[in-house]
Amino acid sequence: HDIAELKRLDLAHHLPAQTDYKLQQTLGGSRIITRADGVYIHDGEGHQILDGMAGLWCVNVGYGRQELAQAAYDQMLELPYYNTFFKTASPPPIRLAAKIAEKMGGHLTHVFFNSSGSEANDTVFRLARHYWKLKGQPQRTVFISRWNAYHGSTVAGVSLGGMKYMHEQGDLPIPGVEHVMQPYSFNEGFGEDPAAFCARAVKAIEDRIVAVGPENVAAFIGEPVQGAGGVIIPPDGYWPAVEALCRKYGILLVCDEVICGYGRLGQWFGHQHYGIKPDMIAMAKGLSSGYLPISAVGVADFIVDELKDKGGDFVHGFTYSGHPTCCAVALKNIEIMEREGLVERTRQDTGPYLAKALATLNDLPLVGETRSLGLIGAVEIVREKGTNLRFLDKEGEAGPVVRDICIRNGLMVRAIRDSLVCCPPLIITHAEIDALVAILRKSLIEAEPVLRA
Ligand code: PLP
């Protein structure tokens, strides 16, 4: 590849996701990633970089899977595309729906396909409100979500999400979304007894339900572990208590499994780790390991029954709902995950190994906390050891400074405010986890004088 030419064209014509055009110009164009294999990505300038983010929390089976390419190739030759609008469907979406239903288990029996995580949450938004209308409770329109939640970039996604800086662009949220405290103990509950903090976070939800009027609430939505908000792992007991609240007030419980689904927390779905039973779940990313765009919404039997009983109408769908090629690749991806036991391996082996490896960073002066669950984790960077005082409070965010050093040292991680997060492919080995943590250590040590200067 002619990298200089690509960078010139990038600046001239390309607005990448999370556009920061000024930064893109300062950098002289985007970093060009040209190929990848296993857990490594390669840029056009000869650097091999350990992908600690599995792309964007999605390449669960790792890069370079011939079988996924073959599945797409075979399906494209047989039937590349057909829609599901005309009471038609091709074999792959039907088989994939059945496979996902098997993995969800319990009362989540049906699946609605879309292309992205954002669209999945739009589907949830409309379907939940539609359900309550069919039930004769049309006033149940309010969604309760958490600050710092990420549910996507569409109008419903940003509205359901709790990123204030995203709300500012596009004049959002739309009416009918209420945001409450997130269970972020390092921030909101530092030094507090975990059980007391948990009770406080749950009470914040109940207080809001009561303030809005339970009869007006359609659903509570949350990521089992908040990803883009900073890998916020809730205290034990949080999710069962939230589930109990939803049952108490007759509110639908929705889990956004876009990151947590497909093995990330050591179960097929994140809610299974917490032993709760949501009424709808959104999934994307790991469903196809990011090889092709596909998302889905898992729907409980009683919601489907309501559709059946009341005429069956849900006027909703996308050109690419149930896309045969995307579904064929997702099916093959799940087959690979099953065959290689990636979910069990994450739960029993690599997840605990990552937790231990990250914990070795705790001797560093900059590290305030390390936390992880399965193969998703975070390192909190603090200005003063033993406190949760950040660089963010004074000099600006520390995360991006350390992240840039990590990338230079051969590790792709993401900075979220004053923390670094990682979410490597589920195929990662012990040796690769050691390499990941060694680069984090080296980079945190190199960053300290820069941050304190
Ligand atoms: N929900 C969660 C929890 C996510 O992390 C994301 C993306 O990162 C989305 C929804 C949106 O998915 P997409 O970018 O595919 O629209």
TrEMBL record:
Enumerate the cofactors the protein uses. pyridoxal 5'-phosphate
Q: Which CDD domains match?
A: OAT_like
- Return the SUPFAM superfamilies for the record: PLP-dependent transferases
Write down the InterPro entries for this protein, in alphabetical order: Aminotrans_3, Aminotrans_3_PPA_site, PyrdxlP-dep_Trfase, PyrdxlP-dep_Trfase_major, PyrdxlP-dep_Trfase_small
Q: Which UniProt keywords apply?
A: Aminotransferase, Pyridoxal phosphate, Transferase
MF GO annotations: pyridoxal phosphate binding; transaminase activity
Q: Which GO terms describe its cellular component?
A: cytosol
- Signal peptide coordinates: none
Q: Which family does it belong to?
A: Belongs to the class-III pyridoxal-phosphate-dependent aminotransferase family.
Q: List the NCBIfam families hit by this protein, alphabetically.
A: PRK07480.1
Write the protein's name: Aminotransferase
